[in-house]
Amino acid sequence: MFPGDVRVLPAGPHALLVELADGERAEAFHAELLRRRERGELPAVREIVPAARTVLLDGIEERTPGARDRFARELVSWRIPPPRRAGRDAVEIPVVYDGPDLDEVAALWGVPAAEVAAVHSRTAFRVAFCGFAPGFGYLTGLPEPLHVPRRTTPRTRVPAGAVALAGPYTGVYPCPSPGGWRIIGRMPDPGELWNPGREPAALLEPGTPVRFVAVGEGAGGAVPGPRVAGEGGAVPGPRVAGEGGAVPSPRVAGEGAAVLSPRSPGRPGAVPRPPVAGS
Questions:
Q1: Each residue of 46-98: pLDDT tens digit?
Q2: E strands along the chain, which residues?
Q3: Which terminal residue of the chain, N or C, has fewer Cβ atoms less than 10 Å from its own Cβ?
Q4: CA distances from 123 to 71, 92, 137, 154, 272 (A)
Q5: DSSP state for residue 62 in the 8-state scheme
Q6: Helix, strand, or coil (residue 52)
Q7: What would the pLDDT profile of 249-275 be if each residue is shown by its tens digit?
């Protein structure tokens, strides 16, 4: 573990909330939980839900009295390796960089507006956690000098597909909603961010590498959909739970990770504070 950097708290009768010092430690702890669950080394846990600096383990089965408390003490003693960030293909998301807050972000970054797309699209992002709305991923990767504050006055409606910044995070809105993040562009076809008929339903799951690709409209040709970087043909189709074959769609990535239910009691306006994402 990380000495002195972890605290395990009860959360209702069947859950534990693990608080960590920062997002990198939370990511490493979440990855270790998934590895141990895959090896059958965890007690029965219904959900593992990462957030900004916490991980919630919900639905813990207590087959013997005091099992949850013993598990909590065991968690504190774990030795956690750093996050393994190699080996997964990045999901590439097309973006038209024409957002209403582009000039404001450029001024905050100290660059011309035309440079925002170049700076943002050459950054390697990773999904830290999900929340706020189904399919909404909180992406980290921008260096601290490029972190921007929320808008002073939130918008009452942000369109689906809006690519926006707040604090250390980039997010892509999967559906229309209120929000206070600074919008720098739009994903032309955001429907694949959340597809309940797919397994997993979320395109952007915790740990997924993400790259944004600047595209333009009106240049004679369709705007590409999201795809897995480095693959030469169509992106493998999503699988519907319970079916043996792939759905014939060449637009969706996101295989190989545990299915986590996006949870979110908050909004995507404020930079999340533990234990609630998106509050």
A1: 899 999 899 999 998 887 888 888 899 889 888 888 777 666 789 999 999 99
A2: 6-10, 16-20, 45-50, 54-60, 91-95, 125-130, 137-140, 155-158, 162-166, 169-172, 177-179, 182-186, 209-214, 227-228
A3: N
A4: 39, 12, 16, 26, 22
A5: -
A6: coil
A7: 223 333 333 323 333 333 333 333 333
